[in-house]
Design brief:
36% of the residues lie in helices and 14% in strands. It has two domains: 2-13 and 61-179, HAD superfamily/HAD-like (Rossmann fold), CATH 3.40.50; 14-59. It is α/β, with parallel strands linked by helices and 181 residues long. It binds magnesium ion.
Length: 181
Amino acid sequence: MIICSDVDGVILNYIQGFIDFTRKEKIPYSHNPELYGVISNFPDNLKVRDQFYSGKYLSQLKFYDDSLEILNLLASKHELHLVSALEPEQSKKRVENLKMLNYTTLQCVGDDRKEEIVIEEIQPDVMIEDRPELIEAFHRAGIRVIFPDWHPYTKGMECFATPFSLWNEVPYLLHNSLTTD
Ligand SMILES: [Mg+2]
């Protein structure tokens, strides 16, 4: 089976990493968990993003519970491709952050190209994704999608994809999705 996974919000806790960054750098910020994404209403969004990316924060994001162990288990039996909407310039930090993970490929492709790379190039049997627009897009492209249900912004995505609450449910979900095909 070919498994493809998004990284931020699924494997790594980008949101908490960003919140920790704003606290350490004393940047006033309150996160709205109902909305996808973190950077929305700063006077200069790109400047804040660059500041976040320039430090060590981006290479030290925390794994969600059990994601590392479960993905390594899956990677021992299947192809595991990781695709991130981070820009290619951030690849080194992403590789550093994921050095314990045994993936087949890792690509940081930028926001604009991610959908196309997954659908046209990787063509996975299962996609793991948290961004609502992409959950819907991958579903429409005929890809089976599963998504973590711990983000309020994925509310309603059950009509396009299968939710999971804990990473240790994922092997069973994938097994079931194979046998019901
Ligand atoms: Mg994501």
